[in-house]
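To: structure desk
From: M.T.
Subject: fold request, one chain
Message: Could you run this one when you get a chance? Sequence is below, nothing fancy, just the single chain.
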Amino acid sequence: MIDARIQRTLNEGSGMRRSLCSLLAAAALFAGGGYLPEFPTAAAAQSPAEARPGPAGQEQVIARMHAMLDRRLDEAAASRQRYWRELRAADGTVDWTRARRDLARLLRVPAECAGKQRVVEVERKIVARLNEGVIERVTVEVCRRQLLAVGLAGWPATEGTPAPLVVAFHGTAGTPEKVFGIDDPARFDLKDYHHAYGRALMARGFAVFAPLLLTETSAQACTGYNGTRNEVNHRALPLGTALNGMQLGMIMDAVGFLLRDRRVRADRMGAYGISHGGQLAFYFAALDHRVRATVVSQWFESRAEKLAGSRHPDALWREPGAAHNQHPDILRYFTDVETAMLIAPRALLIEAGRRDGERAKSAEREFPRIASAYRNLGAPPGAACLEVADAGHEIVMKAAADFLEHWLRGDKRAACPAPAAGRS
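Reply: Done. Structure tokens follow.
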């Protein structure tokens, strides 16, 4: 039997859709109790006066479609198992090259972004001088000079000593400037949830690169903060690529350029991302073996339920603004657990906030599978960590800085220094 919430969600009339768009446009006004609000579902927006009947028989047709999709969701788990069995040879070795190639294909990373082409610097300009160091805006042509990557590079005030590089991914309704805490808060609808974590990393002596990710700083009707993202993604899909794949390819090329800078230790790169930026940090580390340590904040959970679950209250298929995060066919091959396996045995820390909806509970349920995979793959102790903090949808950074120090500098403190962190 189909979830009643689904029937309410998908059988609304035009008046209800208009109400939903109004609610989405007003979502930016939300500031209390959390940092990045989930957009209201259509079911939440419905009122009896606005509900309109659909065409005769449509309710039954939709119910059958969702029943089939529930079966497909169950079958996807079996498909993943078959796929990973096929990757394993008789001697137990896994074809990681094929797995990464398949993930890149599912994310639709453009072939033009192969990471071996010459990157051309367009502009480099100092935008801030802080006690922690200097911040430059860097603009480069990437992906065979077809695309433009822009970001802020923070160079710590440690003259003459090459520093480990952390690629810091901002979240939805954020900017590279937010990562460093140098943006005007009046430009933003939402309470800041980045907490200038790039600047804090600079204070620790890390070089930090914060790439620009497409988003809006003010909510739009229906699409929230992701109208531009969805527009580019919708155009890209019929042409064999996708926005997230394009941005991952752009960033990998741009990072290759930065790793040649004399101020950077090319063999000591990490990644740290929050929310949507956590997603890209996660996939970036899975695809790019140069990443030695990764922190994924407020993103990791049961990906199957988040993308396609019929009972998940915040499933992305319910959100008009989240279309850019639906990757066709991916659940037949990868959830967050399988993606983490492409990072292992390199270090991975999951940050989750107890006040960030159901995500933290989901992360706690899923993390033991990652810990088990890391053990089976021979990862060193403490290479996989979970920190569940008393926080909302925000950068936590209680364990992350020490974690990065340990794996990128060889600091002797524990790999999972926070008392609440899980251990592999």
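Reply (cont.): The longest helix spans residues 58-87. Let me know if you need anything else for the meeting.
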